[in-house]
Amino acid sequence: MSWITTPLTEELLRGALELERTGQGVQPHRLPARARAQGDGQVAMAEAQPSGVRLVFRTRATAVELDALRTKPAYEGAPPRPDGLYELLVDGEPAGRSSVDGGNVVLMDMATGSADLRPGPVGTVRFTGLPARDKRVEIWLPHNEMTLLVALRTDAPVEPVPAGDRRVWLHHGSSISQGSDAAGPTTTWPALAARLGGVDLINLGLSGSALLDPFTARAMRDAPADLISVKIGINLVNHDMMRLRAFTAAVHGFLDTLREGHPATPLLVVSPLLCPMHENTPGPSAFDFSQLSEGRLRFQAAGDPAETAAGKLTLTVVREELARIVRERGADDPQLYYLDGRELYGEADHAELPLPDDLHPDAATHRRVGERFAELAFGKGGPFGE
Fold this sequence. Notes:
Number of helices: 11
Distance between the termini: 46 Å
Radius of gyration: 21 Å
Structural class: alpha+beta
């Protein structure tokens, strides 16, 4: 087989706000350098996990190889996590999935907060047997592993797909939006919703980091977008990040910043999905290590419900305040909308599909949330409907 190596450039990548060129390869970033410089280690890890980032090109190639260096998290005392997946779409249809070997491992001790980096080699993901015709090829990168792209090889030339063929949907949320326990990168709920809605996704779901950070708001302000959504609440509660007075001001500030760059873009504010442990009990969330050796890490609410009177946040408080803010701002902003997250995942859903760790949805729930969001947001009469 005669391979053609194609440089990895911005024209071939969708879903990243910036590409960093290093001595080893190209690092896709979901936040620009200025934002990364203002965040902490959790932000740095989450944004470098390329949820929603994919290579997109046209080719007649029947074989594709991608060299990549992954950095995979692992947890002291727990079994190894499943490998991150690279998923192939051909003309929009699933056509294969695989993982790379080797790579770095970051071993974290959840009890002490320490982390130890164990370096490893570059690996290769390979897809063969593709139809020998002109086609649109997408390779979706793992949503839960830091990924450095090293080389792209094909057995026929490739060309970029020009941008602008679809509306761009810019979304920000927590680990649930990043993908948490989804089955793969194309089946996180935002990826599913984007496919059903026929839009081009930029996913700023940042695990543990949907905290109304001004640097995230500025990154979204400056990013291209035809549609914008922000899912607000769960991280603020489970980090016990702020009281109601600060929350209200921070939401207004975040929305004000978005409107500086996107004054008339449809903007949807989404409140939290149902999470019973924090509906009426404030944060923080605490780790339950009792089943860690079996590969199960659970969470529990560590706050005191009585403290809501002093302004501590619960999901119920967050939803009520978000609805009020959107209602009042909407008098002067007709393109501002609100969606109660319990319409995506509520009490009946929890009875059927409970949260496995009491905080994050499983793969089946991601599918349900994605399908419902597509219907409510992109469907007829929805804020993103055409």
